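Record now logged for everyone:
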Amino acid sequence: MNQEETGYKNIKDCPLTFALSIIGGKWRLPIIWALWKNETLRYNELKRNIDGITNMMLSQALKEMEDYGLIARKQYMEIPPKVEYSLTEAGKDLVPSLKSLEKWGKHMQNQ
């Protein structure tokens, strides 16, 4: 597809491409899914729910997703420090689309 077909001068102008850049990456979807299933998780609980993720990758993905407004981080001022993560409303709004994509993926696997 070229610029004339899409109507977009810059790929970042495409809403779908922009959305995929937010949720793309190896770890973002598993993080969203784990938080959706569990509502609120502490850092180590989240790490245990995502097989194979390193501390560095989890921290980086959480920070990026928080910057995009998909994840809320709540820090409690106590010793030892306690931090909880949950989906924001924008993150929760994404789940029905992901479920549709999951359904499509299952259909494609069975072809």
Notes: The first helix runs from residue 3 to 6. The helical segments are 3-6, 15-23, 28-38, 43-49, 55-68, 89-109. The chain has a mean pLDDT of 88. The beta strands are 40-42, 71-76, 82-87.
